[in-house]
Design goal:
The chain is of the alpha/beta class and about 850 residues long. It is about 50% helix and about 5% strand. A five-stranded parallel β-sheet has the order 4-3-2-5-6, with helices on both faces. A three-stranded antiparallel β-sheet has the order 1-8-7. A three-stranded mixed β-sheet has the order 9-10-11. Helix 4 packs parallel to helix 6, helix 22 packs parallel to helix 31 and helix 25 packs across helix 31. The termini are far apart. About 5% of the residues have low confidence. This is Protein asteroid. InterPro entries: Asteroid, PIN-like_dom_sf. Belongs to the asteroid family.
Length: about 850
Amino acid sequence: MGVRGLTSYIAARAEIYLKPFELHSTALVIDGDNLACNLYKDVTGCYSAFGGDYDDFYRAVVQFFQVLDECNIRPYVLMDGGYEERKLRTVGKRLRGKISVIKRINPNASITLFPLHLKEVFVDAVKDCGVPVMRCVFEADDELAALARKLNCPVLSYDSDFYIHNVKYIPLITLTVKVLTKQVKAHSKPKDSRDLRRAQAKHMEKRAKANKIVGGMQSSAPGAAAPTAKPGKTYNYLDCCIYRVEHLCGRGTLSAEKLPLFAALLGNDYIARSAFRNFFAAGMGKAGRSKKLKQQQRRIRVTLQWLRGETAESALGKVLSRLKKSQRDSLVAQVHAAIEGYSNELCHAYDFFEAHYENAFPYIEPVSEAEESDAEEALDLDEELSEVEEEEQLQGEEHNEAAAKSHSEDEEEEPEPELEVEDKTLMFPQWFLDKLYPVHLSRFFVDLLHLRKYINNPQIEHFPHHDSNELALPILNYVFALLHHVEGAETKPRVNGEGVVQPIEYTYMTRAVRVTNVRYYKMPIEEPPAYKFVPAAPDARHLRAIFDSKVPHAQTEQLFERLECLPEDLRLYFLAIVYWLHRSEHCDLLHLHALLLCLVVLRTIDVTIPAEREVKAFHRRFGKILKQERAVRNKEAAEGIKRGVKPALLELPVPERMSHVPKSDCYLVQERLLPHFHMQEIFKKKFDLYSTTVLHAFAEFQAVVYQLNGLNSLLDHPLASPRMNQLYCGALLYNLYDLLRHRPDVRYHVQHYLLSDSQLMFDFYCFLFDWCADFIPSWKQTQVDQAALRVQQKKRYKKERQAARKAAATATAATDATETVTAAANAEPEDDFYDLNNKFCALKVC
């Protein structure tokens, strides 16, 4: 949700509110969506303009959890679910902002754009690390806080909401992801007992502004020499800062009951900050005139000072008296909801982890004496505030007292009834929760079922075209139909007052064509699903139904029979390729060649040799291997020895040979392709050469994979979900497309240049393309052939003209040489010339 300005306020006063902390040997509750976005932002940088480098992101996530494991930290990851209806207004504003950024995309800009499969790749990496993970029904904030209180452990996130939650909170920005080692001392102080040094506090403020968290992610390398240390027991830890709500409350400054109102007054996703304009103008006076502080920072300081002299009831009454009647109920409901979350002990995550993971909670720490007495020894903000803040004390205290007296009549002294914590999971059927909790379903399923809405976040795409997800709308419509045609629990259509039956429909929120705006479309169920939907035993034929009705020219029966020839992890991916080739107007066979090459490289090389994307670092690590192997192959070529596939491997099917690709092939192929993993240098000078038209076809393909995988997940995975980190790299795809579009014979170029060092990889590439060739629409095949023929003819004509000019020039040169020789032979010898002024001229006679 976020409390506006509070993160910057805390960071600027880090020595007051944050304590140094050594993170090790403990449980740790992690905000999964927050961590995923921050890791991607730090890892990819400008490469997010090409649609997503999932391979780099996946490795960063795995490395992050490996670092936690080295410090004996047991993480628990919670992912966000759907949106609550009260947040839809904020969602629309953010969607417009993202549309504006994408419309003016520049590959050199520092703005990070999150790709479509970001969260799915993150969950794949988390599961591969063996970390417990669960998707909540709505936003995970309350569930994170409840689980952290049960386990008495910190929450790792970068959300200002946790500054007002009753939990131990580690801001992600303070975490140094580098394993440190320390010797255990007999009489050591508690690990968060000392204060933050001034220099550390300044460093914290800089990191908050830079918004970097994993710039120096390091773990202890295997085989590396350990630093010399004194004999004794040691432990690994991560350096960070920890926050407790008592640090903000202080001794007698602010009670915990006032925190929800404090957060609401600052503004959040559920209530506009402008709603309190009258209150700040009349009830609290001006927020100071200091030029050193921004308006929101002054508002936070003034609000804290005002709340010290008020009780929770009196403060709420004064705020309500200055609000419009239409806004009062919203504020009261929000404050009550915040109080529920503040003291909520209902924790579905605890029950889920306990039921689905062995030894789920190895670390459950009792509350220590230091934590129990922390409230009594909390910082006194009156003593800690700097002299600048003391000079900026509120000028209108007398005005506040008068306003309080004038509105005291509106306050009610009746005690409020105890609030019951609402269990929001009761709004969903149990079969749906059983699929949602293990993160089998994406978060949009909650929106479809609960709100009947789909929020389409745009990708990097061409704005004059329709949004990239429009191609996959038939699949999304089929998913919506399944959700409302569950066997035995079908949704019945409503009848309006005039007796007209209203169709079952959902609202599709997406970008408008050409303009920066959001459009809302009603998408009714046109026809029921082709087969019954039983959640406990779903029918896999629903996947075939999509192709039967929406891709009639794809020869569905033959298509699903030929799927058996492909590896299991590629079958759904190639179904998406066939669907995309038939329904997209913007893709051609060059897009397909690029996808197949990217798949072969990522799926083979990254699992065989260490992944390294920097050219200099690659040659530094593997330079000797490259030099030796290149020398061996050059010698064989000079002797006429042709390298081929071993006879034993020829007996295996082509896909099964890929596990036998030698490391030497991978090193040499990676050396050739490594420059293509990076943005072209020309974009730094002429970024207008960057083509969103090319990327639009790839964005459509990502949308098809996303929606098809969603349907596959709802059907309990009859096909294996595609691992996008082994299939898709946006920068590599764009560069390969740009490289191949100038080649009249793509297969020849791949064989003799890109994959010339690995016959096994080239065979696999040909196998995949030949598989797709049977399902390529005839109209696409013809268009591509004609285009390639035109290019080839132009090049042939150019070579013929060059050869003719060269031959003419050679003939002219030969004629001139002959004439010169003849003239020299017939010429009469001339008398020698003697220069009397040159004393060396006589030497010529000798």
